[in-house]
């Protein structure tokens, strides 16, 4: 025993000794890091920890006084958020979540497609005025969102809005029959209602997805052929998604057979997403106009880094434009586009400004996102700060799951040639 202690003190460095040596060796770097670390602790970490603690209390505006402490309620705020127990008009969590996901997917899709397409057009040879177009296209992205929101709000107005005035001018000029008194921001009648086919889509789509993932696991196996160990990534993601998709398909089928489809959680996810009101399309056009320039800038930088020799060699080999796009352009812009898409997904999912400045979540909360609903919990009486904190934490975990799934599907953390 004594020899072991002696060897650890004289020969090998103990754990605490190694820690002291590490602190001593990195003392100067820590001095440079300390100011920013202190600022982050005060401005970032402490408010987040306080928000987490606040979510376990029934904290309201009257509880801001020191002599009126809030009542500890445990997980009641989380239960009320998820079970529609909040005293908020037209509030329902799962339709709100489904609409938020649909809003994010549709917007990011158009942002990426338009951004990459226009970047490729402006990156082509012999395009006159490239710099002028790139400068003009970036203006929407660089404008203050408040100004943009107010302008578009005026454009979508029923009486005197620019969109309705444009429709009237087209009717007078070309004899068309566009509506000139369309209530873009207030009409509650959905132009397209797909809710009737949602159960069949869920049953068939989720069933096929589960079968495809199960076939992949059977074909590839769950172990690494070289090491014989389990492929944890494949088992967790493919197996987990397979189970969830299979259960969703079976549960929806059971609900259809029992006639209880209207109370199904899965169907509630598509209650707003399957039949968005007219204001959704107004917001979609506005946000696509605002969002695609960012993707264009990222794609332009990635495209300009591709050596032209690759395309020349592909032309010599007889590859057409589609094959060049699939085999050269997409793999080489992926390292730049995937992080931009993930950033755009997070930003669009929590897009507060455009929604609030144009529709404020209306009509009747039909265009609310999770972030705008959380804001209304503290902006409107009875100002439920505890419930809003729980709401924000739930949104964080939803975004975390979406980001992890997106990272797994797009392989964002892998090298582009893996």
The secondary structure category is mainly alpha
The CATH superfamily of the domain at 93-191 and 276-371 bears the name MetI-like
Distance between the termini: 51 Å
CATH class of the domain at 93-191 and 276-371: Mainly Alpha
> What fraction of residues sit in β-strands?
under 5%
**CATH fold call of the domain at 93-191 and 276-371:** MetI-like fold
The appropriate CATH architecture of the domain at 93-191 and 276-371 is Orthogonal Bundle
Strand order of the largest sheet: 1-2
- Provide mean pLDDT, rounded: 86
> Given the C-alpha coordinates, what overall shape results?
globular
Tally of alpha and pi helices: 18
Describe the model.
The chain has 418 residues and is mainly α. Among the domains are: 93-191 and 276-371, MetI-like (MetI-like fold, Orthogonal Bundle), CATH 1.10.3720.10; 198-272. Helix content is 69%, strand content 1%. It is built from 18 helices and 2 strands. It has helices spanning 2-10, 15-25, 27-54, 76-82, 93-123, 130-142, 145-155, 162-174, 198-220, 232-258, 265-268, 270-273, 278-304, 308-316, 321-349, 353-358, 370-379, 385-410, and strands at 57-58, 71-72. It has a two-stranded antiparallel ribbon with strand order 1-2.
